[in-house]
Every structure is written in structure tokens, then in C-alpha cells.
Amino acid sequence: MAELAGLVQRLEVAVGRLESMSGGGGGGGGPAAGSGAVSAYVEAYDALISGPVAQYAALSQKIGGDVQKHAEMMKQAFTCQRQLLVTASRSQKPSDSALAPLLAPVSKVIQEVQAFREKNRSSPLFNHLSAVSESIPALGWVTMAPKPGPFVKDMQDAAMFYTNRVLKDYKEKDKIHVDWVKAYVSIWTELQAYIKQHHTTGLSWSKTGPVASASGGAPAPPPPGPPPPMDFGEKSSGGDSGAVSRNALFASLNKGADITKGLKHVSDDKKTHKNPALKAQTGPLPTGPKPVASRPTAAASPARTLPPVLELDGKKWKVENQEGAQGLVISDTELKQVVYAFKCNNSTLQVKGKINSIIVDNCKKMGLVFDDVVGIIEVINCRDVKIQVMGKVPTISINKTDGCHVYLSKDSLACEIISAKSSEMNVLVPNKDGEYTEIPVPEQFKTIWDGSKLVTTATEIAG
Predict the structure, then answer these.
(1) 7 contacts: CB under 8 Å, gap ≥ 6
(2) What angle do CA 246, 250, 251 make, to 5 degrees?
(3) pLDDT digits (tens, 9 = 90+) for 104-153
């Protein structure tokens, strides 16, 4: 079955190449070189798909279950990226705003892969899902310049914690899982070699031909229209639709003001704050569609007026409004400086050197790696953040945050972790063998009166 799956994958690649040769890219005219054949770097990418990706997919099929479902998503992600490469090989680079629709298909699958893992935390194959979910942002290398290769290496390293767990669990039990790890890791190793050969400083675009557009390249929905506002509304309301709204956020990367084009204008007579008579209506049904349309306006406005920021303002490094920025680095630091990260989503930030303090405020799916902090790390009003200490930090404060993983170094084991109004917190402590032990931070407490004072102790939820 594994060999058959690999053969099917190779056939899919061959069909894709034949479609490209027949001029399927369309829209903006023929290939830049005047030939129907795909470029050399697209052929090299096909070899990556028919090699390591196909092997990983075949082994995933053997394992079955959630791992197989995840692999199907991964194949789709590589297929979408191949289409982007075909477009780049035949077209000139477009503006950043025009590039967003071309990136949307890959971005959407990346978010689906990560959402699948979050929805299946109880899966017996959770470590497999986590390894894929942590490293899938590597496909964002097409937006990373001038060092796309090192970016893929960073994402590959992010998966090592979970691939090591898989190896530990199955090394003596089932060789298929060991082979699965090797095949999966080899995807990113081969991708780095591919990038080094064909896209050393960034995605290579054609010097001739038409300027790339979504109509002549990767299929993507037009920037304006109801779907983005609907997802932004769900994001505002929270709840079970969080993964869907994150998909829309990532897919809407770099749209800027275009994201508000599909919103409907609400007249003053329909606004409750300007029409007191509407406030008496307790049921939302009579005016249901209108309020739904008005909510995204408030959510989308900041995207139009607040651009991404990464700058040093006096003694403060300001990192604000970053969306899908997977390679932010602050390197020229001083001891007196502080870092303030605000409203950064689906992004990673590395802070090098020794600084005074770091604040992470109102961020979602944010990754922070830092060397040394002499004061405190504060995490406030965040969701699904990961913090890795490379050197030392005396105190980490976590407030009003859902989902926080703290990776301590050997030099930071004496760190104090203070938490309040937070959930899903885990501290990962390094072992002698280089692996980590994950320890949950208590969220439930018992308080008793001992006759003179209240005594509070942590408790564990049974079951």
C-alpha cells in the first residue's frame, strides 16, 4: 500500500506538469520563456514532492488515522505552493497587495493543518500532529528575504521536541513511526537544499512576462466580498470558530485597506447607539444581518489604520500589529532596553542579547525566543503563546492568558512563574538527555480556614 501511495503521488505530480505544459497557468499569457515547459526550479520542486513528501505520505497512510488525514492536508499545501512557483517562474513580481491573493491558498492550508492539531488534542497520535503543526509554517519561506533557507531550518527545529517524543515512544515498539520521523524531517532538509540552489535570497520571479496576478496564477478568492468580514466577526465573538477566524486572518495577509471593500455601510437609523428605539428590541432576529455586517467594520478598521511596526523608540523596542511574520529578530540590544510586543498574531520574535524586560500583550499564536532578561517577562491578554528561554530570566508573569508554553533552559530553572486568571499553562523543563519534561501549572485551588488565616493549596482535577 505504501508503494502504491507513492506511485499515486508521482502520477499526480506528472499530471500537474502536463497541465502546466498545456498552458493551464493562463490569464496573463504564456510562460515568460515562450515555452510550455515548466522552469528548472519547478521541476526540482516536483522532485521534492515525488521524493520526501511522497514517502512521508505513504508512511502516514500506513499509520492511518489522524496522521493520514494530516498528510493529505500537507500534500495539498505543497501542491498549492507548486502552483505559486509556476506563477513566479512565468511572471514578474507583483506589488505586496497583489501578492496576498497568490499566497492565500498556501496560507489557508497552513492554518487548516494547525487547526486540525488543536481540535485533536486527545488523539493518541498528538505528538505526530504537533510535529507537523509546529513546522508547517516553513512553507512561508516564499515571503522570507533575504534568508529563506535559515527560516525553514528554524521551523524544522521547532518540530524536534515532538519528533523526539515520537522516537522515544515508538523506538522499541514500531519501526514505521521511526521511519515516519525520518521521512518527515527529510522534507525540510531537502527543502533547504532546494532553496539554497534556486532561491538563495528569496523567491525567484521571472524578469520578463506579465506581472503576476491571482487570475493568472494560483486560484484564490477575490480580496473583497463577504467571507473576510464574516470571519473577522467570528474572531470578535470568540468561541468555537477561533480556528476559522485565524484562517481568514492569515489568508488576508497584506490586503491592507482592500479588506474593507466588501463591508456594507450601515445608515444612522439602523445603529442602536443613534436610534434609542432599537434598544428596546430584545431579539436580534429582526435586524440580524445588519449588526453582523456592522461588527466587522470595527474589527477591520485597525488593519487599515495600524500598519506593522518594528522599531526602537527611545529605550523601547516596539513590535506591533504583525500578522504572519515568522522571522522577526531584534539583535542590536542594550541592557537598558525593553521589548513591547502588541497585537502580533501567527508570528515569531527572537530577541538576542541581554535586555531589561519583555511584555507580550494581546497576541495570538505568538512565539518568543530570547537570550537573557534581567527583569521580568509579562504575558497579558494572550492566547496560544510559546516562550523559550535560552539564557536566564528571574520572573515570568502570566495574566489573563489561555494557552502558554514556557520552555526553560538549564540556566533558568530558578525562574519564578506567577500566574493569574489564566489556563492551559505548561512549563517544559530540560532533561540531561536534551529532551523536555512537560509540567502543567495548577489552575484549580483549594482554600481552607485554619483558625487564624486562609490557607490555599493547588489541587488536581480528578480524571
Answers:
(1) none
(2) 115
(3) 999 999 999 999 998 998 999 999 999 999 899 999 999 888 889 998 99
In whole angstroms, what is the distance from residue 383 CA to residue 363 CA?
Answer: 6
CATH number, domain with residue 448: 2.160.20.70
State the Cα–Cα distance between residues 104 and 80, nearest whole angstrom: 9
Helices (H), 139-267: 148-170, 175-198, 227-237, 242-251
Q: Which three cell numbers stand for residue 145?
A: 528575504
Helix (H) or strand (E) holding 45, with range, is helix 40-48
Which 8-state DSSP code applies to residue 206?
P
Domain boundary, last residue among 189, 220, 251: 220
Q: How high is the pLDDT of residue 35? A: 43
In this structure, is residue 262 part of a structural domain? no
Whats the size of the chain, residue-wise? 463
Residue after which a domain boundary falls, among 186, 220, 254: 220
Strand partners for 360: 341, 379
Which residue is listed with cell 505526530? 128
Q: pLDDT at position 222, please? A: 36
* Residue 48 neighbours by CB under 8 Å, 6+ apart: 78, 187, 190, 191, 194
34, with CB counted inside 10 A (0-12, 13-18, 19+), is exposed
What gap in Å lies between CA 57 and CA 75, rounded to an integer? 8
Q: Are 127 and 117 in contact (CB under 8 A)?
A: no
Instruction: Clarify whether residues 313 and 452 are in a common domain.
Output: yes
Which stretches in the chain have pLDDT values below 50?
20-36, 217-247, 249-257, 259-260, 263, 279-304, 462-463
Give this prediction's pTM: 0.46
The separation between CA 159 and the C-alpha centre of its own chain, rounded to angstroms, equals 13
